[in-house]
Amino acid sequence: MKGFRALLKKDVWLMAAGKFFPMSLVFLILYTLYVNFGYVRFMEEPIYQVYLYDPQGTQGDASRLLHRVDSLEEMDAALLHDANAVGIDASTGEAQLILYGRTEEIDRHRADYALSLLEPSGSERAKVIGSNTPEQKARKEITCELLFFEIAAVGFLGIAAILFKEKSMGVIRVHAVLPIQKNLFLLSKLLLFLLCDLIFALLLTLLGVGVRDAVSLLPQVLLQTALLSLIMALTGLVCALLLKDFRQFTLAYLVIAIFAATPVFLVANTAVKLDWIRFHPFYHIYMGLKNAYFEMQEANIGYYLGCLAGIAVLFAAARYMFGREMRREG
Amino acid sequence: MKMINVKDLTFSYKKGKQALHGLNFTVNDGEIFGFLGPNGSGKSTTQKILTGILKGHGGEVSLFGQDIAGVHTQEFFQKIGVLFEFPYLYANLSAVDNLNYFSSFYPRNQLRNVDELLDELEFKKDFLKKPVSSYSKGMRQRVSMARALLSNPKLLFLDEPTSGLDPSGAVLFRRIIEEERKKGTTVFLTTHNMQDADLLCDRVAFIAGGNIVALDTPGHLKEQNSSQSILVSYLYRGKRKERTMELSEMEGGVRFPHDEILSIHSGEPTLEDVFIQYTGRGLSE
Fold first, then answer.
1. Are the beta carbons of B77 and A181 separated by less than 8 Å?
2. The pLDDT value given to residue B279
3. Which residues 6+ apart lie within 8 Å of A322 measured at CB?
4. What predicted TM-score, i.e. pTM, was given to this entire model?
5. Is the Cα dihedral B61, B65, B68, B72 positive or negative?
6. Which of A211, A267, A311, B73 yields a CA-CA distance of 20 to 30 A from A286?
7. Do B151 and B111 touch, CB atoms closer than 8 A?
8. Over residues A253-275, mean pLDDT
9. Which residue of A167, A177, A185, A328 to mutate against B (max B Cβ within 10 Å)?
């Protein structure tokens, strides 16, 4: 225990010397400001306005959310002013939609919404899939994305930078002849980065989502953060032990950031569809975190077994590389 | 008691690339044993096997009277000290912080006092709290030596201990190694510095191409490979002359005509000369 405490103390010192703690604090402040004063505000989109021209009064059950106009000219002027709006011409007794075209998916969405307002009490009810307000939804979405980015990119870089420093000083070789279990050298780093990531996740969730909403989702968020943190920290350790210098690592970092994270963000947050994404491990980890934020976590033994197997394989690889580094000539 | 016992030691890094070809040697308790050879001869490989860094060797190796397979436990590492060829230290920590960190892995009752140890190694006091990155190579080597001695090891592995030191530093290190011998510490000294080996070692082994080609005391090795001749410089009738003689010729004194003997050189080979005789190549090659 005494030796492990010394390793922890040394790693805390290395993290402090590498400005890890102030950097994390700066990121936390930036993310919090962005969530509260940036993203939530500019993502606050007003609902589509729908204008109805119905001179014969054929749409008696129409919703009060519709804006009735007295002429087609008036409707044209309204649509010209608000290109997102949808017009319904019911002058012939049959509803005809008028809208400025955007993407096919959005056009369909706008059309469905406009038609639903004609029959608000109709049998085709939308399925309720969550009780989040648009602001809550936006907060959870962006907090999840920022947390994933922080752990996957920044944390991964942090642990690798520390190990590269020790590698360049040659001190890893000294630990080969010290009376400690060699695994502890890796475990102390993993434990510290895990703790830092959990504290970061806790604070970011409280500040981004809000204390009231955060309480119920925190246990799952912290569990998913722990899994992601261990996987990324171990990946960082393996890369740092495998690669010769920080320049080579930068390349690996770009590969991981571009080819691993980008498709996951695209599929999870945009209309982009990639069939092969289900084979991408980061997609499942990201969705695990996102589901935790939206409290949609379903017990999936396969997912957890996959994560644990990944952690075990990465730890074995890190141990092997660590042994190789200890044997390396000076 | 045999501190190290090595029998038919073999090792290969890759298939078909054998680094050690059946080494046989023993190191007695309290002995300073020199392992001499040029770069790539197998010195470091042997030391790494003995310190448990390299696994998968062939043959029999025992340390502290125990087979090496089960010996590399935490208790074993508490009993050894290792000085690497390069001074591996945390560059942003001071000498004292480095030594305090490394000492935290050993039982407290076994540790030497850090300040006293650095004082013994004539470490400049002004630098005690300064980061290692501001030290000269010699100062770093002193801190590394302090790290190796910190736990009062029973078996000390020293790899090129005087490398990077000025002549007075080298003399100091040799004195410290001598003091370790007096305390009963066994020293396994890996070097290609002939002077260190000659002055410090009870016995030396010459290793070349993964084979031990000679093993004996430095004195015996030099005697056995000596030409047994001496060179006498003298003055005779105002002229300076030189004469090479067999050692046996000197038994009855200087019998040739001379006015004054100026010098007598034994012509004994150096350890490096002996090494070249055995291996056909120099130690620094």
1. no
2. 78
3. A172, A182, A185, A186, A237, A241
4. 0.80
5. negative
6. A211
7. yes
8. 80
9. A177
Per-residue pLDDT reduced to its tens digit, A201-221: 999 999 999 998 899 999 999
Q: How confident is the model at residue A299 (pLDDT cuts 50, 70, 90)?
A: low
- B87: closest chain A residue by CA: A170
**Nearest to A98, CA basis, from A109, A108, A112, A111:** A111
Which ipTM was obtained for this model?
0.84
Tokens of B255: 């019998």
A interface with B, Cβ–Cβ below 8 Å: 2-3, 5-6, 9-10, 13, 17, 169-171, 173-174, 176-181, 326-327, 329-330
Record the tokens describing residue A79, joined without a space.
Answer: 């649509």
User: How many other C-beta atoms lie within 10 A of the C-beta of residue B117?
Assistant: 21
Q: Does residue A101 sit in the same domain as residue A184?
A: no
CA A83 to chain CA centroid, Å, is 31
**Same domain, yes or no: A54 and A35:** no
Does B48 contact A327 at a Cβ distance shorter than 8 Å?
Answer: yes
* CA B131 – CA B148 distance, rounded (Å): 19
State whether A138 and A104 are in the same domain. no
Residue A127 lies in a domain: no
Asked if residues B135 and B94 have their Cβ atoms less than 8 Å apart, the reply is no
CA of A174 vs chain B CAs: smallest distance (Å):
7
Per-residue pLDDT, B265: 83
Low-confidence ranges of chain B (pLDDT < 50): none
**A283 lies in which domain range?**
8-41+133-329
Within-domain flag for A124: no
Is residue B185 within 8 A of residue B154, CB to CB? The reply is yes
